[in-house]
Amino acid sequence: MSSSNEAAAQQSTSISYEQLTQSWPAFEAQILALLETLGLADKALVCDHVALRVNSIASADALRDAFSCVGKIISDNIINGRTILIIELDTPLTLGQFSIACVELPYPSDKVYPQEGWEHIELVIDSKATECDTLSRDLLALCPKLSALLPSEQAAEPVPSSSLGLNSQGIASLAGIKIKMSSPKGDKERLANPTIAFKRDDVCIKVHPHGIKAVIASEQT
Known about the structure:
The protein is α+β, with helices and mostly antiparallel strands. Helices cover about 30% and strands about 30% of the residues. The protein contains six helices and eight strands; from the N terminus they run ααβαββββααβββα. The chain has helices spanning about 5-10, 15-40, 55-70, 130-140, 170-175, 210-220, and strands at about 45-55, 70-80, 80-95, 100-105, 115-125, 180, 195-200, 205-210. Strands 2-3-4-1-5-8-7-6 form an eight-stranded mixed β-sheet, with helices on both faces. Strand 3 and strand 4 (about 100-105) form a beta hairpin. It is globular. The model is unreliable at about 1-10 and about 155-170 (pLDDT under 50). This is VOC family protein.
């Protein structure tokens, strides 16, 4: 395929604002199912924002314009070498019990995502953690079921799955979840915000101690 045809193909498959709107119910269903599997559905957590992924600057620019019509950009920062926008919506998105006021729109990096569109939500838990080990302990205190994924370093021996209310089916469902721990930080940020991500298939739930507006406020100090 010629370069011009490749460019045309990329453009034709780029995600649009309308496609994002249409795909929201399916994304919501996947996220709610993952929340239930993790045991976080009933923890009264705050969802501070939802994030999407795009593979082209053209898509990012188009979505920036579209979201600017239904909200305002409250942060334009460089994180891990790429621009990431945070848009505060005029009307929050609804996802299950959550009201989500902000959208994270990252510009593309060298990585090509197999699927463009909604990718993850981020939850805030009550924690003063400045690194992932402490955050992991706080998360386990909130949701002991996650010890099947995040074994406590302080435990003398593994916690029996029976004591966590897990049957063989529950253990199998957790086995399909990938875990990643990181401490992403923007060039201007002064607030440590360790993050634990739980990914299954094409969606992800991230947990951290500080909401996006607190992180943005730290850029001003």
